[in-house]
Please model this.
Amino acid sequence: MFGELFSPLHLLVVLVIALLVFGPGKLPELGSSLGKAIREFKKVINDKEMHKRKIEIFTLPNLF
Model:
């Protein structure tokens, strides 16, 4: 199902449309901004998971 959705031809069409809409000068800047946003999102998700694990460790019942 998704294999047909992300074929190289579809990705090429999306790239051409983005190039026409934003222009060749703005496209690298948009890519860089998107990459930074994705990295920041992953960092927040990982930090939140680590915080959740720390809370679970400290709230474990004392077995001794």
Q: What stands out?
A: The radius of gyration is 21 Å. The chain has three helices and no strands. Residues 47 and 53 are 10 Å apart (CA to CA). Residues 25-64 form one domain.
